[in-house]
């Protein structure tokens, strides 16, 4: 009599997590969509970066950032411990590889708020785990209106943000998905749909092959 393998149950089909990148020019709605995703998905967590900038009042090391000095940061770069890193206004920022990979292995998803350059680095270092979304405004005129109605920035700052927006949006074709954020509720729903579809991809399902084989599809009368 042929030995039969122990059946694999649906709850034994687990999932490897994914890295979800949201990029957009300032004012296109990235932060609002990110907050909505985080509020709706407890298994989705924001990536925590390492930085050399000083800790600010109320910030917690390991929660808001991993605070390190420049020597330690440079050592991490040399050892290849970052998935992506950059220097902004004299301070270094980077995404430590270890915590992200541990989260993915445990079926947790990690959300990234990075620009196109950071996305390129992530693609080079973790392509199979990466899902990228670029958020476009419905028009440049609407983007400028949103920036102006914030009442947070001077006209010069708004113009600088608009100049950066042109450069950032030129990289839209490098992303997997594009959301034109004309209506925020529709855009959030689209982002949720993308996340749901990517979670269901065959290659992310651990033990799926064993589950299908345990059904013994060849044994049909």
The CATH top-level class label of the domain at 12-47 and 108-214: Alpha Beta
The count of DSSP E runs of length 2 or more, i.e. the number of strands, is 11
Major β-sheet annotation: 5 strands, parallel
Quickly give the CATH architecture of the domain at 12-47 and 108-214: 3-Layer(aba) Sandwich
Notes on the protein architecture:
The structure is a single chain. The protein has eight helices and eleven strands. It has 221 residues and is an alpha/beta fold. It has a five-stranded parallel beta sheet with strand order 3-8-2-9-10, sandwiched between helices. The chain has a four-stranded mixed beta sheet with strand order 5-4-7-6. It starts with 13 loop residues before the first strand and ends in a 7-residue tail after the last helix. The model has no long low-confidence stretch (mean pLDDT 92).
Element layout with pairings:
Elements (H helix, E strand, L loop, with lengths): L13 E2 L3 E5 L6 H11 L3 E3 L3 E2 L14 E2 L2 H9 L3 E7 L2 E6 H9 L3 E5 L2 H11 L3 E7 L3 H10 L5 H15 L7 E4 L3 H16 L5 E2 L1 H7 L7
Parallel strand pairs: 2-8, 2-9, 3-8, 4-5, 9-10
Antiparallel strand pairs: 1-11, 4-7, 6-7
